[in-house]
């Protein structure tokens, strides 16, 4: 019983609520433009969006951020890199994974560009 109490005492509990403007990107679960469109929606609701990824998904996060920046929708606010200690599920040994967090803010032209995209989509729908 004492061993269980000791292990429970080592658990770190965070008082922080999960961020409502964070997108955790996976390298295999969703297509690239799912994350691009999701980030656009998040930026419509919030002033900024945080894109987060581990390991192989880092390339996807960087690509999403670059697409948003190159289209004039976002500006880079902050980039954070770190390593995270994890357990290799197949071998059961501890491993370190690279982690990146990219915070993007709405560009000054964000609302204007999004309105133009909606107008284009409506015009295309009327032609069909």
Automatic annotation (TrEMBL):
A Pfam family recorded for this sequence: Alba
Gene3D superfamilies, sorted: Alba-like domain
All residue ranges annotated as the DNA/RNA-binding protein Alba-like domain in the record: 21-81
Single GO MF descriptor: RNA binding
Annotated GO CC locations: nucleus
Protein name, entry field: DNA/RNA-binding protein Alba-like domain-containing protein
Biological classification of the source: Eukaryota, Viridiplantae, Streptophyta, Charophyceae, Charales
């Amino acid at each position: 019983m004492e061993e269980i109490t000791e292990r429970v005492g080592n658990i770190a509990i965070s008082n922080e609520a999960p961020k409502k403007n964070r997108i955790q990107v996976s390298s295999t679960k969703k297509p690239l433009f799912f994350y691009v469109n999701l980030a656009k929606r998040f930026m419509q609701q919030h002033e900024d969006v945080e894109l987060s990824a581990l390991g192989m998904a880092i390339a996807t996060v960087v690509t999403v951020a670059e697409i948003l920046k190159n289209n004039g929708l976002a500006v880079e606010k902050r980039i954070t890199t770190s390593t995270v200690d994890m357990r290799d599920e197949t071998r059961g040994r501890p491993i370190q994974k690279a982690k990146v967090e990219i915070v993007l803010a709405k560009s000054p032209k964000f609302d204007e560009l999004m309105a133009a995209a909606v107008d284009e989509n409506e015009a295309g729908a009327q032609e069909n």
